[in-house]
Amino acid sequence: MKYREFPSLKKALLSSVAVLLLCAQTVLAADTVTLDQRLPAETYLFVSAPNVEVMQEKYKQTRFYQLLQEEQVQEFCTQITEKINEALAEELNMTVDDLYSILSGEASFAFFKPSGAPFAAMMAIEFGESRDKVDALIAKALSASEEQGSEVVEEEYAGATLNVIAVKGANPNVPIEQDLVFCIKDTTFLVSNSTVGIKDVLDSWEGREDDSFKSSPVYTQIQTECLPESGESVFNFFIDPIALTQSIAMASGPQGMQLQMGLAMLQPLGITSLKGIGNCSDIMVGDYESISRTLFYLDSEPRGLMKVMRFPAAEQKPAEWVPADVVSFQAFNWDSMSAYDAIVTIVDSFQGPGATEQMIEGFAQQPDGPGIHVKKDLIDQLSGNIQFFTQAGKGGGIEDMQGLMLLGAEVKDEAGMTDVLTRVAESPGFPGEAREFQGTTIYEVVNPNPSTPTVAMAVAKGYFFFTTEVQLLEQVVRGVAAADSLVQSDKYLKLAEHFPAQTSIIGFSDPTDQIKPVYENFQSGQLGALIPDIDFTVLPDFEVIAKYFGTSASYMVPVGNGALAVQFQLKE
Fold first, then answer.
1. Which phi and psi (to 5°) does residue 507 adopt?
2. Residue 461 Cα to chain centre, angstroms
3. What is d(CA 170, CA 236) in angstroms, rounded to the nearest whole number?
4. What does the pLDDT look like over 455-466, one tens digit per residue?
5. More confident residue, 560 or 289
6. Helices vs strands, H then E, count in the chain
7. What is each CA distance from 295 to 224, 248, 270, in whole angstroms?
């Protein structure tokens, strides 16, 4: 090598510094301890934005953010911001931008059971370089507490100064801490109802070895199933509804006895097998503007009422009678026999073996009844394919803002189900009236108010239909042209490409038609009068902002420990 080919001392130093910085950054990232690592395994509720700054940057790429930047909505947005800033200035001497600037890194909230206390609630917010603003908030809170006559006690613990405010009017019969406790540890602001809770987290500030919430089996499985391939998300959620309710009941002392008794009854119903519901959401990743994955975690095979909600995976798509202009659509593959068996087992467990069958037989043989056998005439008729859609009201008034619904349950024998419906309609006390429409008998429940949608039902096209608006049923009977069906529409097909081959449930949403009447009633002043301090008339016509509302889809599939639900919206 020639002399001139050796790098200069300056270049060598710069290169070395760059390598050291890169290594340091990697080590710091690896050593970052998150709240779920500090929390105990007995954490019942956890909500977290792992990195608020990343979330904010991604959010600025979304359609909703673009909507807020739309020139014609700026006057309205300014009104809202000014009102919020007025309230914040009075209470905290800050603005919205000031509060946003505090958030840096993780922001989380949790309910958990610390060692030595029934449970604690805690919020943890990383504030980065905004210590002065956090100190100002703390000073404001302490000053307000002293003005109200509350006792404030300071305590040094694990390198943090705990401010403990005794809340006036606390219920002495509730055996949980009812203080307001807050402190700063490093660059994290902690606030809780429990001194024990904050101390428990401070004791585990560097992370727990084996018994952390992050390492708990249920939460670990949820993270495995729900996190995207990148291993990162902008929002995480977890709840163990049974354990949370049990914790609240136990902490409520004598006042929680009824709740404890109610929980004890859930055991034979199979509800206690639900050990957690967890979600990870991300935005502006891959093909998706937003994607959310939710796992319903069961620790055993579904039983009791959980078997009522059994949806095996199958090939699914909208029926030809579902129109393209729906606000929402869902299709379910329901195991009706599993549901029937589960209900029989539950009822028999309380009433004795064979009690359910006796009741069903008795109902079928009532002299003045329709002679319907629930099992043979209804349950055995269902194929499991159930489809459901909603449409927006066609008018522009407030009364037209409610959605219209039609449900179709596919039957195995159309003639047999027609006979069942006829017998029901001819039985005494049936509230509907029959009429013929293009060869189909429609049963309407006539409403004396002509402006109210008419409930109706019929059997047609291999389905039993029930609707809150008879015009939807007439549309189905009349037939939907292929070009006007949801299953042939480009907006559905584009989303359906991201469905697995087999699903338990699929869904589609196009909220534009439902948002429009609400928006226009605010804009016109009809609903805007409910919030007199805001001038909604400055909003632009709906057509200006309609482009910012996109379609979305969802699906559910069974997984090893329960079911995984995915909801997503594609990028433009």
1. -145, 160
2. 34
3. 32
4. 999 999 999 999
5. 289
6. 19, 20
7. 10, 24, 18
